[in-house]
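Same chain as my last thread, 119 residues:
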Amino acid sequence: MSQKTYLSMVAREDLDTAQYKILNVHDANGVKLRVAAGTGVLGVLDNKPKSGENATVVVAGLTRCFAGATITAGSFITVTASGTATAVASGQYILGKAITGCASGSNFQLLIQHNGYRG
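reply #2:
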């Protein structure tokens, strides 16, 4: 059984097509898609809210995540500028580890761990 930790935030933009993409805090209790590749993030969107609606964000545990590049199982994962997942490079923030692999544009299983920045 997989345990997840969720936060309930407010979508500060339409996120109805962004389910399983990576979000970050925008303002007090508000989230938007990540806009700076490789930097720290909050978690993965678990629902499909419009602007102003409740956004359920997975911040720890196992979740689906949308790949912006080919993902290999066991890879450490970071974020692209469009809020999708990619393998981490030196100096980038590690959101977690891929449990399964997939092709770009597909979903994979991500264990969110917030490992910090890769040296």
